[in-house]
Amino acid sequence: MNDQKEAKEIIRELMEKHYEDAIAAKKNGELIGWAASNFPQELAECLGLNIVYPENHAAAVAAKKAAPEYIAQAEADGYSNDICSYARINLGFAQLKTCAAQELPMPDYLLCCNNICSCMVKWYETLAKELKIPLFMLDIPYNTSYEVTPSRVEYIKEQFKLVISQLEVFTGKKFSEDRFKEVMEISSASGRAWRRAMDAMASTPSPMNGFEIFSYMGLVVCNKSRKETTDVLNQLADELESKIISGESSFKGEEKHRILSEGIACWPYLGHNLKTLGQYGINIVGAVYCKAFEKVYSNLDEMAVEYATVTNCVNLEKEVKMRTDIIKENNIEGMLVHYNRSCKMWDGFIYEMERRIAEETGIPIVSFDGDQSDPRIFSKAQFETRVQSLSEIMDQRKEARKGNR
Amino acid sequence: MYTLGIDIGSTSSKAVILQDGEMIVKRALVAVGTGTSGPAQLLQQLFANQEIQQSDIRKTVVTGYGRMNFKEADKQISELSCHAKGVHFLFPEARTVIDIGGQDAKALKIDSRGNLLNFAMNEKCAAGTGRFLEVMAKVLETNINDLGHLSLQAQNTINISSVCTVFAESEVISHLSKGLGTADIAAGIHRSIAQRVSSLALRVGIQSDLIMTGGVAQNIGVVKAMENVTNAKIYVSEYAQYSGAIGAALYAYGEANK
Question: B interface mutation test: which of A280, A333, A392, A394 has the most B CBs within 10 A?
Answer without folding.
Answer: A392
